[in-house]
């Protein structure tokens, strides 16, 4: 019999999977703050480091489910993904180690800043590149930075990866989102192993989130080409701003 807590975890995963696959964000910007605020309602406290650890499993599920759909649609630049994933994997391992040792207040502050940046880019709208062009030399260090943010904050790294692939590597936006989702899964494996070794990964909660994400990401990848993005981006941006404010209040007030 499914408990209320399990259903809540699946619900968080569903929302994260749909939004993550549609926007190429990996879902971590939903999972981490949602766990922080939902679990206390069930009498279970959780640190932000534990929430980040669980989110890594959600990111892995987004990568597996979303990438499978995008591969079927022929949108993934597999060669680009394999060439760039070593940078995100190394960066992810470094970020995960930082997540184990940095104080919760510092991680929450960085996460809130990333949420606000994500909201800004969604509201402002990315200057999208739809024509092929030679990649910039800044792509490898930028992808390494994306990996660090992925490991430290439990996000997929798409907040950084999608603009890097689109603006610096010259990959058209839909292919950039698909390729970013593909890279997410490869990066999250190493991140999850680091957090599990550090004793922060609750596999019971992670399984519920992952189940929801697997369903949601598959649906989100299929809906991405059909849903008008403007209203969704506006609502999601407002949610990010509200969540960032709540995190800053919780850890600084």
TrEMBL record:
Keyword Membrane (UniProt): yes
Location of this chain's protein in the cell: Cell membrane; Membrane
Principal subcellular localisation of the protein: membrane
Official protein name in the record: Probable membrane transporter protein
Family note: Belongs to the 4-toluene sulfonate uptake permease (TSUP) (TC 2.A.102) family.
UniProt keyword annotations, A-Z: Cell membrane, Membrane, Transmembrane, Transmembrane helix
PANTHER family with a match to the protein in the record: MEMBRANE TRANSPORTER PROTEIN MJ0441-RELATED, MEMBRANE TRANSPORTER PROTEIN YJNA-RELATED
Membrane topology summary: Multi-pass membrane protein
Native species: Deinococcus arcticus
